[in-house]
Every structure is written in C-alpha cells, then in structure tokens.
Amino acid sequence: METIGEILKNAREKKGIKIEKLEETTHIVARYIEALENNEFDKLPGEIYVKGFIKNLSDKLSLDSKLLLERYNLQINENKFEQELYKDSDKNIKPVKREARIRKREKADKENINNINNEKQISSAEETEKEVRMLAISSINEEFNKAKPKIRNNISNPESDLLTATRRDLDRLKNSRKRIPAVTIIVVLAILVVIAALIVWFVNRNNNRISGRNDNERNGVEIVRNINNTKSTQNIKAGDIVNFKPMGISANIEFYRIGNVIDLNINGQDLHLSKSSPIILDLSGNGISDFKINVLEIYDNLATVEMERLEENQMINAGFGSNNVGSNIQNEIPSSANLQVIDGETYILQNIEKSNINIEITAKGLVYLRYFIDSSAPSTETLSSGRAVNLTAEDVIMLTIGDAGQVAVRVSGIIVQVGESGETVNKTIKWVRNLNDSTKYNLIMSDTR
Questions:
Q1: Cα-flanking dihedrals φ and ψ of residue 265, to 5°?
Q2: How far is Cα 190 from Cα 184, in angstroms, rounded to an integer?
Q3: Which strands sit side by side in the sheet containing 367-373, from one edge to the other?
Q4: pLDDT per residue as tens digits for the range 232-274
Q5: How many whole angstroms separate alpha carbon 35 and alpha carbon 44?
C-alpha cells in the first residue's frame, strides 16, 4: 500500500512541480513538505498541522483530500499498532526490568503516603493553635463588654450632650439642599449681563433719536422736507426727515446721527452712510436700482447729502465720467445684453485708450464679496441690501461674488450681468491690448481660471 508521502511525491513529480514552487503557492515550509513526502511525521509541528498540510497539498496537486486524510489515519493507526506490539514483546523478553519498575513505584507510593501523614499532623497542630487563640480573644471581649457600662458612666452629661448636638448638626448638613454648581451660576450671570447690555443699548439708541429730534425742534430746524425733483442736494442735521418723491419712487428718509458715518432710516430700513459707501436701493421693486444717496461733505453735526433718482442706463458713480473711460463712451451706457461675447469672454469696452478700471457693486440682498486689485492682497466684505462698493484698478480686478443674482455690477458705467441668483461666480476683468492697434485696448470680463 502506498504511503501518504509516496502519493504526494508521485503527484508532484507527475505535474513537474518543484518543492520550492509548491512552497510559494501553499505557504508551507519546504522542509515540512520534504518530511511529509518521506513520512517523517515526527519532524512536523503536530497532527493538526499535518492534516492541514495534507489537505492544502492535495488541493494544489488535484488529489482527493478526504481520501488522503483517511489514508493518513490508517497509516498512523498501523504505526501505533506496530509500536504497541514491539512494547509487548519487550515486556516478555525483559521481565526483570518490569519487576524493578513496579518496586520503584511501590516505594515512591509509600514515601508519598508518609509525607501526607506528616502534613496532616502539622495541619492538626495548627488548627489547635488557632482554636486556643480564638478562645483567648473571646474571653477578652467578654471582659471588655462587662467593663463598658462602667466606662460610659464615667463620661459627664455635658460632654455626652455636646456629642449628641454635634451629630445632630452633621445630619442636618447632610440632609440640607444640594449646592448649585458654580458653572451654572456663572452661565446664568453671563446671560443676565448680556440681556442688560442689550436693553441699555436699545434704550440709549431710542433716547438719541428722540433727543436729536427735540434739539432740532427747539432750534427751529425744519425737520420735514418734501422733494419732488429727480436730483436734490440738502444740508441735514440729526432728526431731519426728508420725503424724496420724484416720479416713480418714494423714499422716506430719517436721519438719526451725523458723524463720519451717518445713521439713517430709509422706508423703515436702518442703514449707514459715508463718503466711501453711498447707498443705492431698488425702491420700485423691479430688480433695478433706482435710488441713490451719497455724502458730499460733513461739518461736525451738519452734512451735505445728494439724493438722486436713477435711470435704468444711467451711470451711478459720478467718478465714472466720460473723461475716465475714453471718448468712445456715449451718453447712453449699454447693458450686458448688448455686449459682444467671444469664446466665453465678454467685451465691455473695445478699441479705446487704457485708463483706470472703475467697478461699482451694489447689493440687493446680503452678499459675500472677495476681490483682488492688481497685485494687492485680497479683501473680503459682506454687503447688506443697499450697500455699494467702489473698486478702482489699473490693469486687472478679480472678483468672487456669492449669490451673483443679488448684485448690480457696473464696469466703467456699463451694466454687466455676472451670474444668476444663488450662483457663486469668479470673474476677472482686465485690459487686453488690441491685436490690430497696439495703442488701443479692450476691457474684457472672463471666468477666473
């Protein structure tokens, strides 16, 4: 009958597989494969590993692993049977050695019995010693309990009363209400301080408005003015009210405070006005800015402001005049619908002399704005409704506008559509030299790359 090792070796040689290759595919160490093929099971780690090796190798060599494992079990059992047979024959041949072994075992058993008896004697002595100790302790406790009343009687009544009162006070402290954590107290106090500060701020603000109005009334200032012209310049003080009502729009303007920044209210909306930040609004609600107010001069508590009704194609910034953008700009400024777009680039101005790029961005709602001017560092602003920002560059301006549909953008006086509502856009506006005439330039808007 072929052994396990012979079966595996013959199958490997028939397939022409070397032991090293089999080691790579099965991850079984080569010396274990050789020992298995030579039936040297004593060189293998254990029976569980041997069976695993046989199954793994039989799968790789296309053999039936179940049959091989059965053959292995038969082979092992035969080996064990032969070993037991040899042992029995040894017993018959050498009976003297067997008797000597039995005598040695009997002698060792006797010695163990003697050791056990000695240990029992030692343990019984220890137990008796423990019992004596317990009896002594119990007798001492009895004597102490008899003497307790005498000791208690020696304590004076005032001392016992003091002890009783002290215990009572401690019990009261334990059962008293739990203390409020310090963190909770600090948080509550902070909230109260913030609320108090807000109340004081609102009260002072209303008092300033009322005091401004009362001062103007005492000084005989005409605090209500009605204006119907499309453009008007007025000297105003705190408390003045101007009703600006040209055809098509109506602005009720109330001036609260005059300073470097003027606090005012237009149609119920609180706003701030300064020289650098004019206010531009859509009062008619048609999506087109139609009202502008800007500061001309500020003298202590007096300011000169200019109010204006804007036409759809009118240039908003007075600084964006025809002198700044070349002689080709006509009185009527085109919108983005009339601008030429080539390869995604919007041509705002074409074939003119290079000048400063002037951009005015007016917010119709809350808008995020980030911009780079020429090579300067970036700046970021958040514009509220009606706020306007004026930017000036020599060569290039890069813009990032959140919610592009909520802004009105004019580049050198020309209305430019930068994006849709809800869309965030990145735009670059720059001068590009005209290919046909090197002395002329085109002003182009494109997506920032």
A1: -130, 125
A2: 10
A3: 340-342, 345-352, 441-447, 425-433, 396-401, 367-373, 379-383
A4: 999 999 999 999 998 889 999 999 999 888 999 999 999 988 8
A5: 7
* pLDDT > 70 fraction of the chain, expressed in percent and rounded: 68
* Residue 387 CB partners (closer than 8 Å, separation 6+): 277, 279, 362, 363
Q: What is the pLDDT of residue 243?
A: 94
CA–CA distance, 63 with 54 (Å, rounded to integer): 10
DSSP secondary-structure letter at 303?
Answer: E
Q: Could you tell me if 347 and 442 are in contact, meaning their C-beta atoms sit under 8 angstroms apart?
A: yes
Q: Is the pLDDT of residue 282 over 90?
A: no
Instruction: Compute the distance between CA of residue 245 and CA of residue 267 in angstroms, rounded to an integer.
Output: 12
Q: d(Cα 427, Cα 398) in Å, to the nearest integer?
A: 6
Residue 298, class by beta-carbon neighbours within 10 Å (0-12 exposed, 13-18 middle, 19+ buried)? middle
For tokens 């109010």, name the residue: 307
Please report where in the chains the tokens 């001069």 appear, as a residue.
297
Stretch among 46-60, 225-239, 290-304, 322-336 having the lowest mean pLDDT: 322-336
Calculated CA dihedral for residues 186, 194, 381, 277, nearest 10 degrees: -160
Helix (H) or strand (E) holding 97: helix 95-154
User: Diameter of the chain by CA atoms?
Assistant: 145
- Would you state the pLDDT for residue 247? 82
Tokens of 405: 């549909």
> Residue 115: what are its φ and ψ, rounded to 5°?
-65, -40
CA neighbor of 303 nearest in space, from 358, 264, 246 = 264
Distance separating alpha carbons of residues 276 and 374, to the nearest angstrom: 20
Residue 209: pLDDT band by 50, 70, 90 thresholds? low
Q: Contacts by 53-58 with C-beta closer than 8 Å and gap 24+?
A: 53/28, 54/4, 54/8, 56/26, 56/28, 57/8, 57/22, 57/26, 57/28, 57/33, 58/8
